[in-house]
Amino acid sequence: PVLIVLGAVVRGNTSFMVVALILIVFGWAWNARTIRSMSLSLREREFVNMARFSGAGVGAIIAREIFPFVYAFMIVGFINTILFAINTEAALAVIGLSNVVVPTLGSIIFWALNYNAILIGQPLWIIAPIVTTVVLFLGLFLTSSGYNDLSAEKRGVA
Predict the structure, then answer these.
(1) Quick check: 1 and 88 in contact, CB under 8 A?
(2) Contact between 99 and 14 (Cβ < 8 Å)
(3) In this predicted model, what pLDDT tens digit does every residue of 44-71 receive, in sequence order?
(4) Is the pTM of this model over 0.85?
């Protein structure tokens, strides 16, 4: 809802970089909270305490004990943030709240809907960007899911 209100305030008169910065501002918090909670949980585990009592420094504990558990979630979170940004920009452009002059998947759908592409016999104007968005989403989602499964196998979880 905040993104829609923000999009309505600027009314599509903003540059693509401003839209990207707005999406970055709203997209980072979920991953940061997840990584922070994982790090705080790992900090209290026995193997971290054993490394601390063995005389390992803070940097060594982070690099050898905590980071191997967290890096996979960082990569998966990054991919999911890309998914969030692409889909949010497309949704804002479809309803006309983004800069529709910049050629993005959402602006292509916006112009296809605006010119009634289906009614004038040009369904590919609207089908192509929708299929591209879905394929991009599925590809990034499956990459994220596969990387998460691979890292779980390396950690011995799955």
Answers:
(1) no
(2) yes
(3) 999 999 999 999 999 999 998 888 888 8
(4) no
